[in-house]
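[agent] plan:
  1. take the single chain provided in the ticket
  2. run structure prediction with default settings
  3. attach structure tokens to the ticket
  4. add a short note for the reviewer (M.T.)
[agent] executing step 1
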Amino acid sequence: MKLVFATHNAGKLKEMRDMLAELKIDVLSADEVGVTEDIVEDGATFEENALKKARYVAVKSGEWAVADDSGICIDALDGAPGVNTARWAGPNAGDEGLIRHTLEMVRDVPEGKRGAHMVSCVAIVAPDGRSWMFEGHVNGSLVFSPRGTPRPKLPYDLLFIPEGHERTFAEMSDAEKNSMSHRGRAFEQMKTFLREQLNFGKS
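[agent] step 2 finished; step 3 output follows
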């Protein structure tokens, strides 16, 4: 069975393939099915953006499609950047620019006040247009400088320590991060749904 992930983000694609490895599903990127255009993420919520992307790729590819929209919400900034997480440092900032901008925005926020949470909303859309939504979140805090090994296009892994831990996501192995991350939690719900409700991945 094929499942097209509506992303051009190599880091997200690897995470999804790792988390769905036990199922008999061929996880493809949007690029691999010929959907190369960027989809404008202009929704007011993570849910709207995820559903828009998944619907677009399902229509264009004729396959089952999945998309996630995720981001970080910083307490001291009244929940910003939220849905603007990937764009709030400017259109061409890149990972390093996002890291610099985020740290600058919380430069004067002291230890103990640097709370944040990360959110992931995952949408699945069937070729016939039916859709389902799953959500995961994890509370934590921001460090004062980047820590760990960068993952492609996942800059906040270097800045975010999940609650109850002392290491950033970037200081954890892929398996450890996926077991507790916002995206991991949303994907786990999706995996259960695919296996138990739709018989995806069963012989």
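[agent] step 4 note for reviewer: The CA atoms of residues 4 and 65 lie 5 Å apart.
[agent] ticket updated
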